[in-house]
């Protein structure tokens, strides 16, 4: 999912960079207004966990592999504002220290992997949570559905960016089919990892799960 340098043209990459900078600025302001201090340590742990787990790849179809994207996971645990900042930090470190994603494409990668999952997919999570029973199972079902959607939505965002400024001659229909097909499978892995991890936190410290809400907290047994 990390876009390398030169795959998307300069104007499109620059526009995404402007969106990324503006989004980070808004997230910083909103996070400061949303009890940042009390959740700063948890945000750091979430960023460290996502960074570590992204180093592990699992096989999917056609010899390709995927890894946790982590945006929806971060949003469910610490909220969309802090979640987007946590993933942004991970992407910046990966880009600058490990050359994972191009520097000129950093804005594109932040939009696709930090903003789309923590804002758009988190909105899907909230809708699914309202439709599901206000129980642990309902909450985890909403988490699984939104986690899968987060990967597919990020892939669709990339397809849209390629349509605007792709620098190769790949057919858009071919690219779309390949991206969506592979990323549905990756999304299943994302859903499994995210649901298991959020479930583990719910079983021990449900108060740390931002997306749980007070009603669900009353329904969740805590392991002691």
Characteristics:
Arp2/3 complex 21 kDa subunit ARPC3; mainly alpha; 224 residues; 2 strands; two-stranded antiparallel ribbon; 2% strand
Question: Can you characterise this structure?
Answer:
- With 224 residues, the protein is an all-alpha fold.
- The protein has a single domain, classed as Arp2/3 complex 21 kDa subunit ARPC3, CATH 1.10.1760.20.
- Helices cover 74% and strands 2% of the residues.
- It contains 8 helices and 2 strands, in the order H-H-E-E-H-H-H-H-H-H.
- It has helices spanning 10-33, 36-53, 71-78, 80-98, 106-131, 136-165, 172-204, 213-219, and strands at residues 58-59, 65-66.
- It has a two-stranded antiparallel ribbon.
- Helix 4 packs antiparallel against helix 5.
- The radius of gyration is 17 Å and the shape is globular.
- The model has no long low-confidence stretch (mean pLDDT 88).
SS field, number of helical segments: 8
Per the CATH scheme, the topology name is: Arp2/3 complex 21 kDa subunit ARPC3
By CATH reckoning, the class would read: Mainly Alpha
Number of domains: 1
Helix content: over 70%
The mean pLDDT is 88
Low-pLDDT windows of residues = none
Strand content: under 5%
Taking the sheet with the most strands, its summary is: 2 strands, antiparallel
- Named at the architecture level, the CATH assignment is Orthogonal Bundle
Helix and strand element order: HHEEHHHHHH
Task: Label the structural class.
Answer: mainly alpha
Number of strands: 2
